[in-house]
Write a structure and sequence with these properties.
By secondary structure, the chain is of the alpha+beta class. The chain has six helices and ten strands, in the order βββββαααβββααββα. The strands form two sheets. Strands 7-1-8-10-9 form a five-stranded mixed β-sheet. A five-stranded antiparallel β-sheet has the order 5-4-3-2-6. The chain starts with 13 loop residues before the first strand and ends with a helix.
């Protein structure tokens, strides 16, 4: 029987991990006051400037050592009616969730030629599989992330499953851990969408045998 055969799911063997960054990415910019590159943080504040029938919208970044600022362009010389009304209202009141959306948006950074540092600390909220390791069936994990950043899937698994990298790679290579749709777990980075992961019973056995060996 193929290790990638579909198995029935139930509430007992499905868990969800939600990835939540602790901060937004810094942007590396030349500071006019310091005369070299510094890490600017997202202030979570928008700046709007209207000129006749056009409007510019920026997300403000700051360097806290000298109070220098830099503006990340969100909209340039655009008619306000062309901006979604709900989005416009959120930017007008400096909505934090909207600011974070643009602070993590790689396309916005590219269009601004901004050097964003996506290696941010995070928390992975959701049930650990410790209480499920003795199940005689697979465990299905939904991994959800509201943002894209430089978190590799194998690092997340190593931390959440509490296994060595060597043991994790062995399970991946044997097909005991896999994703749907299939991705290269060793290289895949968490993106702004959901990914489904299967931990097979063979993988659970390997993790349990490791725990038994460590507790001797």
């Amino acid at each position: 029987m193929s290790c990638k055969q579909k198995y029935s799911m139930n509430d007992k063997n499905i868990i969800t991990w939600t990835i939540k960054p602790k901060t937004t990415p810094f942007v590396l910019r030349n500071c006019n006051k310091c005369k070299n590159k510094k890490e600017f943080y997202c202030s979570e504040l928008f700046r709007m400037n209207a000129n006749k029938q056009k409007i510019d919208v920026w997300l403000i970044y700051k360097y806290n050592q000298c109070n220098s600022t830099w503006n990340l362009t969100i909209f340039s010389r655009i008619n306000p009616v062309d901006i979604d009304k709900s989005l416009f209202n959120r930017m007008s009141r400096n909505d934090k969730e909207t600011a974070w959306k643009y602070a993590f948006d790689m396309e916005t950074h590219r269009s601004n030629q901004a050097e964003a540092l996506y290696n941010v600390d995070y928390v992975a909220e959701g049930e650990n599989i410790d209480s499920l390791k003795n199940l005689s069936q697979e465990i299905f994990i939904n991994i959800e992330s509201p943002y894209s950043f430089n978190l590799r899937l194998d690092k997340l698994l190593k931390d959440k499953l509490i296994v060595s990298r060597k043991k994790l790679l062995e399970m991946i290579e044997n097909g005991y851990i896999y994703t749907i749709p299939e991705v290269n777990i060793r290289k895949h980075k968490i993106k702004e969408k959901q990914i489904k992961l299967t931990i097979t019973n063979d993988a659970l056995k390997m993790m349990n045998s490791t725990l038994v060996f460590e507790n001797k």
